[in-house]
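Hi,

I'm pasting everything inline rather than attaching a file, because the server keeps stripping attachments. The sequence lines come first, and each chain or strand is labelled.
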Amino acid sequence: MTGLVAGVDVGGTFTDLVILDPATGAVRLAKVPTSLPDQSGGVLAAFTEAGADLADMDLIVHGTTTTTNAVLERKLCRTGLITTQGFRDVLELGRRTRPQAYGMTGTFVPVIPRDLRLEVPERMDARGRVITALDEVAVADAVRRLLDQGCESLVIHFLHAYANPVHELRAAEIAAGLWPNGYITTGHSLLSESREFERGVTAAVNASVQPLLERYVARLAHGLKAKGYGRDLLVMNGNGGMVAADKVAREAVKTVMSGPASGVMAAVATGRRAGMANLLTYDMGGTSTDVAMIKAGVAPVSNEIEVEYAMPIHVPMVDVRTVGAGGGSIARVDAGGMLRVGPESAGSYPGPVCYGRGGERVTISDANLLLGRLPAHRFGQAAEAARAAMEAQIARPLGLSVEQAAEAVVRIANTHMAGAIRMVSISMGADPRDFALFAFGGAGPLHAVALARELAVPRVLVPARPGLTNALGCVVADLRHDFVRTLNRPLDAVDMAEVHAVLAGQEAEGRRLIGAEKLALAQVRAEFSADMQFVGQTHLLRIALPGPEVSREVMQAAFEAAYWARFKVDLPDIRANLVNLNCSVIGERPELDLSRLIEPGGRLPVAQPAETRNVWFGGWVDTPVYWRDHLPLALNLTGPVIIEQMDTTVVVEPGCRVTSDLDGNLIVEVGNA
Amino acid sequence: MLDPVTLAVIQAGLQQVCDEMDLTFSRAAFSPVIAEADDRSDGIYSAKDGSLIAQGSKGLPVFVGVMQFSTRTLIERIRSGETATPEPGDIYIVNDPYLGGTHLMDVRFAMPFYRGGELVCWLSNTGHWPDTGGAVPGGFSASAISAEQEGLRLPPVKLFKRGEMDREIWQIICCNIRVSEQRIGDVKAQASALLVGAERLAGLMDRYGDATVAEAIAEMRKLAARQMRAVMADVPETPVRATAIVDSDGVVNEPLTIALTLRRQGADVVFDFAGSSPPCMGPMNSVRATTLSAVYLAVRHVFPDVPISAGAFEPLLVTGIEGTFLDARYPRPVSGCAAEVSQRIAEAVFAALVQVFPDRVTAAPAGTSGNFGLGGHDPERGRDFVMYQISGGGYGGNAGHDGLSNGCSTIGISKAPPVEIMEQTFPVLYRRYALHEGSGGAGQHRGGFGLDYEIELLRGHARASFVMDHGRVGPQGVLGGKDGAVNRVEVHRGGEVWVPPHLSKAQDIALQPGDRVRVRTPGGGGYGDPAARDPALVAEDVRLGRYSAEEARRLFGRF
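And the predicted assembly:
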């Protein structure tokens, strides 16, 4: 056994593979087009591309967008719902919202169509007392009707099942006797807290992607096995941990944010080795810009993520927020004569003018090209079209030169992204100045330094392989299980013995699940937290707890301190309320050597520019352009500098110093804002 | 002349200051109305005349532009000596509807912002307090006939003096409002938002220079005015007419008419409301600031790109409201102005604008907040309770799509509370929470569907009150589309079904355990000729039970 670890991530355009030898740190990489609709073809192709023998792999961890795409494109399995009489429209009515604050338009497609949502007599009250007994005959009838209508999956979702699941359990038992497969999801099993729309959508999404994910994973596992892989396949979850492939479909909804989560986990691991525990991840691609805040080496996890308009998924997932439309954001001069960038986007198709796919409206990517930040030779004729578009759409109306116009577009885009990032950090109770910016994605490193200046972030870290970050996240991922228990009682009225028992029980269950995996682990640890508020409030603050045996006084003090830190408000006369007790049990894998993500043999002893080209920094500046893979580890350059690599370009603004750490990460000191 | 980049950057910066105030306010607030429903707004206002410089994008739409009127009044009263002169660290509190406000529950704070000892602008915010006293908990009395019945009215007074809260004023307030013990949390949140705003604004001015920021503000105002004029350029000089009907004022059972004439006048656009009904006896009066704000928010729903600033409102001239119920004066009751009348005003504006911009404007949305209040005693918990149910309705069909179902009120952005949370908190049981079948107005693109819910009182006793609208006529269809279904309220008591005489408004209806209230909210208006609707879509709606086959034949002439 050679013990190789492979991380393979399927994105919208590319399937990325990182294979790492834990013994030597040796790395093999591959980037191949994603195969659709069956992503497993691309995964296998990536191993071929890397020249890897699957029999040599000790562990394969897989990040997939199978469920993400299914949800966003509504390409879901035919799923039926059985619910409480009077409530079949909950999934369609939502919470009385609209997609945007202004504009009385919008569309919404419920996860399960109305004719597949059936009602049965049954009712609990809010304390879990039976008001109407479950009509078991009606359940069996409904199950048969849904089967007759060709449903493959089933959701059983009753009001107040979080308080008493007995009706859901009995209905599921009846259904199991009739349903031809195991695709039955009960509402309370994924999320045992109140709010019928959110719990129902979470269950409905789970059921309607479950068969897809199971089939896909089975197909992939089979394909890997046929090529010699003899171990378990693990799959990335949206919580940043991984689970065994044969168990992942049970809670398929947890994989919906798997891609962004693995990027954040790569940042955590990279930051840990680089000695940077506070990171703002900044992932800018062609169609979206996503950020997450890593505090003290811990990825942010939220139970309340809305993956799109009126699509809440309330299971613990890494909290990644979309703050912009990416490089495809369209720039324009409005009717008043004001320059605007976004939120409209050219997307990836037709995309920016410079892609030459018929895009006619000028975008952020076009601006970067015209400023000399992107290598013009890669764009050919389309670069001229981008210039003409910038001239006509922005420069002439504003009375600027093309370069000034392009610079203005980038600057305004940065201002908006910085504002959005600042809002994210404030909503999470953090000051961006205490963080380093971890830049990845195709366009992240282009903007990161300027953005860091705007945010007064002192330092930017560009990882060795910005375009393979998600795959690296799979390589370094830990095993992880999250638990949430809702108490929702004033802290002074809570039985602390119950608190201790809940937390200890959560920890024990997590350790049991992790112990069942056949995987070498460095250690298993548990993290405890509480979601708290003042009585009468609705928003929650998450408070870290030292351990399961925490005292009431410690909880009260920790909450008050956190509240003061966040709002500068103290409210001594109002009681604290304990809403949720949370525990995450993490099976940490041994730390991996990431020093050879860029092959050391290719590095030159002294940095030598591959070329010098004109790049616009308020005027044309002769700027050295370096090839990233050739840079020495003993690096010390001062901007303006451009560093190019296979899948991204790093722009180091004038006056900023760039060095490298031993893993080959570039560290840019931004200096004072 | 400022370069376009600096201008755009400063504009974004001012916007972020306001957005940050909005966020701080909501997240620290206690009242669910603010914390969950975002019934609040924050902005920056000129020191000279109170005109709006920038407003948070996450504020409740009904507050668009509204605080510039209260700030202007405050400035005038300071000049005339009626109100004390500001000093650094002061925060004024005011909720008087007639001094540039909405209803009494919307409590405004205003804080002077100084640079080098000079007052350069005001930071102000509004939050909807759950109660400000008056005849009924929550303030929405459907039968009030004077302002005093609606609650405590505060002229602008300093609640904070040089950074310290005035305990005496605070005690007076607390003695006059319900559930006052939690209000201190909201007050601190509201003040804290202004302090955060001041800190951020100072940072922005330090960075770009006071003179540059001032120049940018002046320039932004000009550009916003120019942009509004450009988007409104197609409004003709020939008058475009529209009306909207309020069911009744809650006291006198007669409809109230909003009559709107839209026309171009030079570079500006006139919204003339002459011919609207006179001031009414009950609480369905609007005050001037709310009427103007309703026009602004409706225009913003159509042209969301134009930034919220005084410049954007400059070309929108609102006339003819004097002597009508859209410009009520003390002591006319006004509790319905923000939640209901404002939405009827917006409906009239949509109905006029859709004739000019058929591709941009929708048929009428449900346009009622659906306030249903239930107050009573819960013997199981041994305490009194006050419950509010708000509800959505169908949106209007539009050039591209059918209307959305169960959308939020035109003037709001808040979510309705989940049934499970309501049942945890109050002694009620929902018998249904469903799509209001058949309610979408027929059209080539039909209206969205309203909500159909039914609540049963489980124990104790309670009194129900309703402040809704669109019970008499449904949300209007346009361009040949049909109206959406009307709002219907039924009270089921002891085997009898009782319908309020005012249809959408009633107060203090006594309920016993087992009694039920059923509410069906309006569907959106239809857009375009129903006969032009794709037959497959008609069939799909029937298959999904949204319309019965009979309804489909009647409404769309087919199936």
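Chain A touches chain B through 68 residues (CB under 8 Å).

If the labels don't parse on your end, tell me and I'll reformat.
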